[in-house]
What does this fold into?
Amino acid sequence: MTLTTKFKKDLNVLRAAANKEIFLDVKNPKLYKKLKRYYKDEVNLTGEDPDADYNAIMDCISEDLQGVI
It folds into this structure.
């Protein structure tokens, strides 16, 4: 299942987070937690550096949203 189908109702929030307009972990922590679970196999999230984990998730979101209007 792709990001855009699984999180269809949250696409505007995801775009805003990917464009650095909002901080997803602050604005919508529940959604951020779901995204961490969604990307757990793609990204090595250590939990030791929350900023690095957040940036890794945002990079994945940005990449998955490319080409989606």
In short: The chain has a mean pLDDT of 93. The chain has one domain: 3-65.
